[in-house]
């Protein structure tokens, strides 16, 4: 700010005017050569009107000679008129020359002042690396704007700080409401999830929510950790540390199951949510998916026959490398094709009749 203020004070003190440089240079040239200019103006005036044989007296004599001719013929009128116009113009020119001659003064002090002013302006042009006073005035305007902004900086900072503090208060209020809303759902949600987990074979499941206050951020002022135990007598610990793949898959399914009950979702996609699940648990999972499908369209990606057999529609996704470029294909399976694919899930690439019978049994529910 100090440097801006220094530059601005210097320019404001100079009181520059547009086109002043050209005026100063012209006035200085007149002031420095005043004696010569005055002498030449005097000589011109003498020739034009001040001497006995001046142009003015010659014109007057010529007019005196031509005027009588007008009585002889009107054709001489325009000659007299033209000569009279020259006389009028000459008289006007003489008055202007007299005016200019009167303005000439031999004033060394004035010459010094003009030189100092020119030096000041040229110094500012050099300092700011500019060519014209107009450019310097533009710099001055920019500095004035910067100075005004700087002067108002404290007020702006105070206003910004007040807005920030108010925003923080509003944010904290919203965060507190979010925390309270979450707290109301922890117990009902965990009870519902535990009930579903027990239906999926984790009879001793314990699920808790550990919520800790943190600095408010995009998701609120809570750091939430899910604590889980699948075994009786074992204290719940962080879900990511203790849950097996199958346990985690079942919990994620239960969460989606609850979400589907609470939210009007037209379609749910379950991508291999049955990872780590098999046997009777897979059958139970398939039944629960079937129940979900009564309320929502359910798209399930699965490698388990117990899940695939529950679908109303069965799509086979496979890779085709019979051409130069491998492509992924999707095929809608009819009943016998479904039996064959589910049998492959049960018994491998060459399923037995027993595997096919098991597939039909699964499809029959």
How would you describe the overall organization of this protein?
The protein is an alpha+beta fold. It has a domain at 2-151. Helix content is 64%, strand content 13%. The chain has 14 helices and seven strands. A three-stranded antiparallel sheet has the order 1-2-3. It has a two-stranded parallel ribbon with strand order 4-5. A hairpin with a 6-residue loop joins strand 6 and strand 7. It is elongated, with a radius of gyration of 52 Å.
The main β sheet shows up as: 3 strands, antiparallel
Based on the structure, what is the oligomeric state of the protein chains?
single chain
Overall pLDDT: 89
Q: How much helicity do the residues have? A: 55-70%
Quick recap:
With 365 residues, the chain is α+β, with helices and mostly antiparallel strands. The chain is 64% helix and 13% strand. It has a domain at 2-151.
Q: What brief labels describe this structure?
A:
three-stranded antiparallel sheet; 365 residues; 13% strand; 14 helices; alpha+beta; single chain; two-stranded parallel ribbon
Write the layout of secondary structure elements.
Elements: H1 2-14, H2 20-32, H3 34-50, H4 55-66, H5 77-103, H6 108-127, H7 133-151, H8 153-199, E1 206-217, E2 220-229, E3 237-238, H9 239-242, H10 245-262, E4 267-271, H11 279-292, E5 297-301, H12 305-308, E6 315-320, E7 327-332, H13 335-347, H14 353-364
């Amino acid at each position: 700010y100090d440097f801006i203020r220094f530059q601005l004070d210097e320019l404001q003190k100079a009181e520059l005017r547009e086109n002043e440089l050209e005026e100063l240079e012209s006035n200085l040239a007149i002031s420095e050569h005043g004696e010569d200019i005055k002498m030449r103006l005097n000589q011109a005036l003498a020739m034009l009107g001040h001497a006995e044989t001046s142009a003015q007296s010659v014109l007057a004599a010529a007019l005196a000679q031509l005027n009588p001719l007008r009585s002889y013929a009107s054709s001489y009128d325009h000659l007299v008129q033209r000569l009279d116009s020259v006389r009028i113009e000459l008289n006007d020119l003489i008055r202007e020359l007299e005016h200019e001659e009167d303005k000439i003064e031999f004033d060394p002090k004035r010459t010094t002042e003009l030189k100092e002013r020119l030096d000041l302006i040229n110094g500012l042009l050099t300092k700011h690396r500019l060519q014209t006073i107009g450019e310097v005035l533009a710099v001055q305007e920019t500095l004035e704007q910067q100075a005004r902004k700087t002067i108002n900086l404290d007020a702006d900072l105070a206003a910004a700080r007040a807005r920030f503090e108010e925003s923080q208060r509003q944010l904290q209020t919203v965060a507190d409401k979010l925390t309270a809303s979450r707290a109301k759902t922890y117990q009902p949600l965990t009870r519902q999830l535990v009930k579903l987990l027990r239906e999926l074979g984790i009879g001793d499941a314990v699920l808790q929510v550990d919520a800790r206050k943190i600095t408010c951020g995009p998701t609120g002022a809570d750091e939430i950790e899910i604590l889980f135990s699948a075994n009786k007598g074992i204290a719940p610990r962080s879900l990511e540390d203790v849950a097996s793949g199958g346990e985690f898959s079942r919990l994620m399914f239960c969460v989606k199951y609850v979400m589907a009950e609470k939210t009007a979702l037209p379609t749910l996609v379950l991508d291999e949510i049955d990872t780590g699940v098999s046997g009777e648990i897979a059958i139970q999972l398939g039944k629960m998916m079937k129940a979900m499908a009564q309320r929502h369209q359910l798209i399930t990606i699965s490698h388990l026959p117990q899940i695939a057999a529950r679908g109303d529609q069965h799509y086979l996704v496979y890779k085709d490398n019979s051409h130069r470029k491998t492509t992924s294909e999707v095929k809608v399976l009819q009943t016998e094709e479904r039996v064959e694919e589910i049998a492959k899930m049960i018994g491998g690439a060459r399923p037995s009749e027993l595997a096919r019978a098991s597939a039909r049994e699964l499809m029959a529910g």
